[in-house]
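Worked example

This section walks through a single chain of length 227. The input is the sequence exactly as stored; nothing has been trimmed or padded.
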Amino acid sequence: MIGYVKENLVGVGSVLGAPAADVSRAIRSAVAAINRVHKVPGLARPVPIVSDAAMVEGGKYRWDKETGRPVDMRLNPRGDHQELTTVLEIAHLLDHQSIGLVGEFASKTHPRMADWRKAIDSTRALQKLEDLRAARSIPFKFSDGVVRQVHIEARAGYLLEPPELFSRSYGQFIAGASESARLGSQIDGFRRPENPSSVVPYFWDEDDFGDVSKAFESLIIELGWKK
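Given that input, the structure is written out below as tokens.
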């Protein structure tokens, strides 16, 4: 891979392009939260931010499979947790460009992430995801009062992928370390019983997250990013 990360540390907003007006407020809020916690290495050029109301996902980080360079970061302006989604996609960018080898997700195998992987592997949330993947489907009572089987194997498997675990745990770490009420509220929204997503542990209970948070704190110090 061609080197892409510069040595200078900057605020995370400096590695992102100017966002469209309909997502700019969420981007600014997410960037402010991250900047309260740490800096990041500068990139050779800012990553474009694209507003994309047509995509199914709330957000997406894309990169060139040949060069490993970022293509863009896309945010759905119709999303109901845009700030959190922004932090999650920035996490993918940092995982892919700034922690280990440029163009590879450090969360997968890089030695620098060993303590984080150990902490994540020991959480109840991860064990529940593994149990859900093995169960393949589970009963869930929907808002109309009817209990239906929900096929969960694919979703749980996706959430167990290291880059996805990194993204969500980074988002929860930033929410706590920055004391962002907005990010915290959006994470809590995934836990509400009326939300079908509550069946699956997208995020961690606070008493299940302590070692993961400590691993992030140590990583930021090791990387020299701490403010």
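What to look for: Confidence is low (pLDDT under 50) at residues 1-6.
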